[in-house]
Amino acid sequence: AVNIFHVQDYRRFLRQVLGERCCRNSNYSLRAFARDLNTAPSLISHLLNYKSSLSLDKAGAIAGQLGLLDYEQEYFVALVDKEKNGRDERVHALRQAYAFALLDADDYLAHDLSLEDFALYLKISLLGSIRVEDARRHFAMEKAELSGICSRLQSLGWLEGSPEIGWSALKGYARTESYDRSESKRIFHQKVLELAGKQLHDGDVNERHFYSTVFSFQREAYEDLCQDLVKFCKTKSDAYSSRDSHDTIYALGLQLLPIAQFQRP
Hints:
The chain is mostly helical. Strand 2 and strand 3 form a beta hairpin. It has a three-stranded antiparallel β-sheet. The chain has eleven helices and three strands; from the N terminus they run αααααααβααββαα. The chain is 50% helix and 4% strand. The chain has helices spanning 10-24, 30-36, 41-48, 56-65, 70-85, 89-98, 115-127, 135-139, 143-155, 182-202, 222-236; strands at residues 129-130, 159-162, 166-169. 15% of the residues are buried.
């Protein structure tokens, strides 16, 4: 099925759904598509060719006929609202909430991979290859345990090899299949971030390292600061602002402390 969160243009989504249905059924046509959406073929044709637009009410009706989930229907209507009225807040909010959850992750089998699995896989990827003899030295586990985990990762398509010749990573940070879709790379990056966050919070607080900058500003500047941050996040952190490959992970952390509430000598 077409993932609606992959697009930011509702017309493009309609075109993709029509194309998918035509591929599944050679007799399917624009007229059949209009019939299924309970609307006129001329309207669909005009929409796809940017000669007409949808009202919000009509967008809601078409979204319902498309068989979308409730939040997908809301996103479809939000795309129409963005085009008509320039309001994109709801588009960004919905994509932030659902885009990654609905990524087509079949190639990476992300949902079958726990963070513990991913940590071991990542270490194998960095080492290049391992053998069962490395169990104690590199992984602090018994040979049978390492062999069992690697065999399972091999069945999931993450490792190649065998207990006799050893295992190596099929995918790695340095070579996440340049021919693959950028969504798969983002899933890989997301797993890295989840793993880093877990290890950071589970680790010894004395071994955590932060770079911090402390500054103050007047309360009147608060709204401007918030707007600047929103603009920055939308520009730099929107995973779907382009279809280009992404190879760098960015993290932004901010804490605001209302020092006026504290008693100062």
